[in-house]
Amino acid sequence: MCSCLGLGLGLGAAPGGNLETEVVKDSVSLCNLNLEDGQDDSLIKLPDDILLNIVERLDIADAARTSVFSKRWKHIPAMLSEIAIEVDSFQPKHEGRKLTSDDIVRANTTMLGATRSILDRRAGSPCTIHLLRMQFYLGDESIFIGQTVANTIATQKVAWVEFTILTKVRKNCTKNELITYGTQFMSFFDSCPNTFGGLARLTLENLRLGESDFPKIFSICRQLEFLRLYHCDLGYMSLLEVEHPQLSELAVVHSSLRMVDLKWVPRLTLVKFNGFVSQDNPVCFGYVPLLQTVSIINIGFSRHKMLKLSELLGKTAVTNLHLNFKSEKIWVKPEGRKQLLPVFHKLRLVNMLNISEECDLMWTMFILEGAPILEELCVMVRDHSCEMITGKRREKYVFSKVKDKGLEWEPSAYNFKHDNLAVLKIYGFQEENKFVSYVRSIREAAVNLEDIYLYNNPACEKCKHPVPKEWTWKQRLSLRDKINKGMLSPVKIHFLTK
Question: What's domain 81-291's architecture?
Answer without folding.
Answer: Alpha-Beta Horseshoe (3.80)
